[in-house]
Design brief:
The complex is a heterodimer of chains A (about 475) and B (about 450).
Chain A (H helix, E strand, L loop, with lengths): L20 H4 L1 E5 L13 E5 L3 H13 L22 H6 L16 H18 L3 E3 L5 H18 L6 E5 L4 H9 L3 E5 L9 H7 L4 E6 L12 H10 L3 E6 L11 H4 L3 E4 L1 H4 L14 E3 L11 E5 L2 E5 L15 H36 L13 E4 L5 H9 L7 E2 L8 E4 L7 H15 L3 H6 L11 H6 L5 H7 L1
Helix pairs in contact in A: 4-11, 5-6, 11-13
Chain B lengths: L15 H11 L27 H12 L6 E2 L12 H7 L2 H4 L11 H18 L3 E2 L6 H15 L6 E5 L4 H12 L4 E5 L1 E2 L2 E2 L1 H7 L4 E7 L11 H10 L3 E6 L1 H4 L12 E5 L14 E5 L11 E6 L5 E6 L5 H4 L12 H38 L4 E2 L10 E6 L3 H10 L2 E2 L1 E4 L2 E5 L8 H12 L1
Parallel strand pairs in B: 1-15, 3-4, 3-7, 7-8, 8-9
Antiparallel strand pairs in B: 2-10, 5-6, 9-10, 11-12, 13-14, 14-17, 16-17
Classes of the chains: A alpha/beta (about 475), B alpha/beta (about 450).
């Protein structure tokens, strides 16, 4: 079987591919009839002006120049690119979902009950005591976790200055800790790719506010010493933070709360199959142990005598989003979790882990760290991982995450998730192996079958053109 | 149909034969063998969540959300409902857009990259600034990011952020959370009839000031009349001028760049998403000189191996996945798909549609205020300003009582102070203004 694939490529303008809206038609409208004094209004507005059929064709063509989970396999490590069920879109599109955030709680009991039910689902799944749904993304959830840790320590008159983070952690962990005003202490991984207890001992101190950890870690390895790690962090008075990016590997098998984590975030767009939308919106609910519940962001939903109500937790950190986060995403997560239930959630995890192990067994690239769970990191060896990725595009699959974590040279971090079956995984393996057997010239010329040829990143950064106005000025 | 998932996830496509063959290929007897989890932290999988079928869940959720009262909302204060054309839903829901990831492989994601480039371009036109990113979470978080940007780019050692006394409490709370880690403090300046009190602001501003924030329209719907002077004052104190607005208002208001704004933030979801229980799309635009300090993602034009113009994420060295704790922001997942919706909506309206919509946002509140002012026990508008979408009315009756009575009659308005209510009117509720006036007559007397 040869692998053939060609992405749609629309070439309607000599300068590039599908022409920009502004190149198709622009109009300038005067504001003479606008009832405002001249010094408060602009004189004119210039923007594209196209008919609806023209717009429908423009965006349809652009969609054909874009690859999504429904186009084919998307084994992007640490991103958990799952199939997004259709019915959750319909549920989120119900007219009764579109309420204004300043509605009185009495008038939106349905909305509040759904939020409360989702909090309950997530608390059960994570083994946590209380959950806030407010953070609009995973990194926002990390930031909330950091703010909660800070508020907790301050409430005990115990100011601390450091957050410990393993070197292989997601970059957001570092950035979120810094935004909270903490210094980051980087924890070097042990030779087996896990937390090295001696290194951890050395990193921890009375200054440690928290250790941020994902489990399994970004190499797909389960931190088997987790109980000991939790004990060490708690012994110095720190909190243990769980980065939920890899929760898909644990559903029904282990819970962060049971492992000793005090605070965690959930990536509903990963674990609970809400669409990534080309980079968002996601949602990053945060779960905490009972002792941290008083610090959760406000408002929070609770069940009162007269129904569901909004309230402000006793020592709330305040707010991290203008209102209640990405509500439409939360509805989808609720419906997805309810659709799967206990058996489906456990099965999703089982199939995700099976798929990663099966795919790794079929791929010829070396996988230095084992045994892994839902994702594995292969090494492209002598090849450049970025070139490997570009060449894989020609075979009609999305490539893995490349060159990260840095513990593996020329890393290909691969996470097939549970939604691929054997034939699809075989096709992925075939793509990997075809590229593994190709010489440098072939992979450096790739991709050839995508909507655009290899794109010059350096030019984009050197000659910054961030709008069509900048293009006009440039020409 | 409920038996279908007793076997497991309905979205894992494996047959039993495939599962068995795959296990054999990896040399395992069962899937459980592949889980490397020590016994003490093993969990038995009993969450107590009952799986339901798709049909049941659609009915269940419809019934649940159906418990929300069916009110006509005259609510605004930063969250606005405008009619979203069908084109937006149908095109944004194309799965190639909806189910894709961040465009880290640009050759296979040109479509979304071009949409985001066009979104950035439209904001550049609306603000007059040179750079717009391709989204923050919402206006509140965009304001927080603007403050940390101001802190990074401003050369002197000031640490105070000045914000209007009249602004959404939530927005201010988020700002405080974003600025605390950076060691900044937030102070307020008073208002003068719902515009900035410029004399007071001049008193308060000093070399300690890192940033001055103003909104137009303000949270009370008043167009800020002295933006140019606030810009000058900000310059005089070597601070950054951050302006909050939204794309509909910007369609007719003077370009922010022309009044000296260094950063424009706001909620762009006023186009494309509606109120959605507060879900948003953070607008963030700034001057080119700050481009390397911008939070979030930027799409730039480039060329491909065939010499054709293409698009790609650029300046990624600012971002958390590369710069880690020295990144300009921790934002990773953003609101890209909402930006796509906003771009389609803006393109559908075009410049003439945008100007018409904004004109309606000026005329409708003026007209409604006049009608309420005729009622016994109501004075409207309270502020002698140009009002955009919404206005404040004073009621002889306690505002909360008026709000409650109106809610009982099927209308939602804000009670914002003891005797102040706020009413927002757009094209989505104008057909109910007669009924609102009637209800108001009863509620306010």
């Amino acid at each position: 079987m040869t692998l053939e694939y060609t992405q749609a490529r629309w070439n309607t303008d000599e300068d590039g591919y599908e022409a920009l809206l502004s190149e198709k038609n622009e109009e300038t409208v005067e504001t003479d009839d606008v009832p405002l004094p001249d010094d408060l209004k602009r004189d004119e507005l210039t923007l594209p002006e196209l008919s609806e059929p023209e717009l429908a064709r423009h965006y349809t063509r652009l969609s054909q120049m874009n690859y999504g989970v429904e186009s084919g396999p998307y084994p992007l490590g640490s991103c958990t690119m799952k199939y997004n069920p259709k019915f959750t879109e319909d549920v989120a599109a119900l007219p009764s979902a579109g309420v204004h955030p300043d509605r009185s709680p009495e008038s939106i009991q349905g909305t509040l009950e759904l939020l409360h039910r989702l909090e309950d689902q997530l608390a059960r799944i994570g083994g946590m005591d209380a959950v806030t749904l407010q953070p609009p993304a995973g990194a926002a959830g990390e930031f909330v976790g950091i703010l909660i840790a800070k508020a907790y320590h301050e409430s005990r008159n115990d100011e601390r200055s450091e957050v410990v983070i393993p070197d292989a952690a997601h970059g957001t962990n570092f950035a979120s800790a810094a935004m909270g005003g903490y210094d980051v202490v980087e924890l070097p991984s042990g030779e087996d790719g896990r937390v090295d207890l001696d290194a951890l001992e050395a990193a921890l101190s009375e200054e440690t506010a928290a250790l941020m950890l994902t489990n399994p870690n970004t190499l797909g390895l389960f931190e088997r010493d987790i109980e000991e790690i939790a004990g060490m962090v708690h012994d110095v008075g720190g909190l243990l933070y769980y980065d939920g990016a890899n929760l898909n590997a644990l559903l029904g098998r282990a819970r962060p709360g049971d492992m000793g984590f005090d605070v965690m975030h959930y990536n509903v767009h990963k674990t609970f199959a809400t669409p990534h939308g080309g980079g968002g919106p996601g949602a990053g609910p945060v779960g905490v142990s009972e002792e941290l519940a008083e610090f959760l962001p406000n408002p929070h939903v609770r069940e009162g005598d007269g129904g569901y109500e909004l309230y402000e937790p006793e020592s709330s950190i305040g707010k991290v989003h203008g209102f209640m986060g990405n509500w439409l995403v939360l509805i989808k997560a609720y419906a997805y979790i309810a659709r799967l239930g206990d058996s489906g959630l456990s099965d999703a995890s089982a199939k995700a882990v099976l798929n990663a192990n099966y795919l790794a067994s079929q791929v010829e690239y070396d996988t230095p760290y084992e045994p892994f769970h839902h994702e594995f990191v292969a090494s492209a060896g002598e090849q450049d991982a970025a070139d490997v990725a570009k060449r894989m595009l020609d075979y009609g699959v999305h490539p893995p995450t490349t060159k990260w974590p840095e513990l593996v040279s020329e890393a290909l971090m691969t996470e097939p998730t549970e939604v691929e079956n054997r034939s699809s995984l075989d096709r992925l393996a075939q793509a990997f192996n075809a590229v593994a057997g190709e010489d440098r010239e072939a992979i450096e010329a790739a991709p050839e079958r995508t909507a655009a040829g290899r794109i010059d990143q350096t030019e984009a950064a050197r000659n910054l053109r961030l709008s069509w106005r900048a293009l006009d000025e440039d020409s | 149909m409920t038996t279908q998932h007793s076997r497991g996830s309905p979205f894992a496509p494996h047959t039993d034969e495939e599962t068995a063959a795959m296990l054999a290929a990896v040399g395992a007897e069962s899937v459980e063998e592949l889980f490397d989890i020590p016994d003490p932290v093993r969990f038995d999988g009993e969450f107590g969540i009952e799986p339901r079928g798709e049909r049941e869940l659609r009915a269940e959720t419809r019934a649940l959300l159906g418990r929300n009262d069916d009110l006509t909302e005259f609510l605004g204060r930063g969250h606005y409902d405008h009619y979203v054309p069908s084109l937006v839903d149908h095109l944004a829901d194309r799965s190639e857009f909806l189910t894709s990831y961040t465009q880290y492989q640009p050759e296979i994601t040109q479509g979304f990259l071009q949409v985001l480039f066009e979104y950035q371009s439209m904001l550049v036109e609306l603000t007059g600034l040179e750079v717009a990113n391709c989204s923050m979470y919402d206006a509140a978080t965009a304001l927080g990011e603007a403050a940390t940007l101001a802190d990074r780019v401003r050369e002197t050692s000031g640490s105070t952020v000045l914000v209007p006394e009249l602004m959404r409490e939530e927005r201010r709370s988020v700002l405080e959370n974003y600025t605390e880690g950076a060691g900044l403090s937030v102070e307020t300046y008073p208002h003068d009839d719902a515009n900035a009190d410029l004399d007071a602001l001049t008193e308060i501003a000093s070399e300690e000031t890192v940033m001055i924030y103003a909104e137009s329209p303000t949270v009370r719907g008043a167009i800020e009349e002295r933006l140019g002077e606030i810009g000058d004052l900000t310059d005089a104190n070597d601070a950054l001028f951050v302006l909050g607005s939204d794309p509909v208002a910007l369609s007719v208001l003077e370009e922010p760049a022309a009044v000296g704004a260094d950063v424009v933030i706001g909620d762009a979801a006023t186009l494309g998403l509606g109120t959605s229980y507060g879900m948003g799309l953070g607008l963030f635009a700034t001057r080119e000189e700050f481009v390397r300090q911008v939070p979030g993602r930027l799409v730039g034009a480039s060329t491909d191996s065939g010499g054709e113009r293409t698009y790609t994420l650029t300046l990624q060295t600012r971002e958390q996945h590369i710069r880690r704790e020295r990144a300009t922001s921790n934002i990773c997942t953003n609101q890209a798909w909402v930006a796509l919706r906003t771009a389609i909506h803006a393109a559908w309206l075009g410049p003439s549609g945008l100007v018409d919509l904004a004109t309606e946002c000026l005329e409708a509140p003026a007209e409604l205020a006049e009608r309420l002012d005729d009622l016994t026990g109501v004075k409207a508008p309270v502020h002698d300003r140009h009002q955009f979408r919404e206005f404040v009315a004073r009621t002889d009756q306690p505002a909360e009582a008026v709000r409650e009575t109106l809610e009982g009659k099927g209308f939602a308005v804000h009670a914002i102070d003891d005797h102040l209510v706020q009413v927002c009117v757009t094209e989505t509720n104008t057909e109910r203004t007669d009924a609102l006036v009637t209800a108001f007559r009863e509620a306010a007397k």
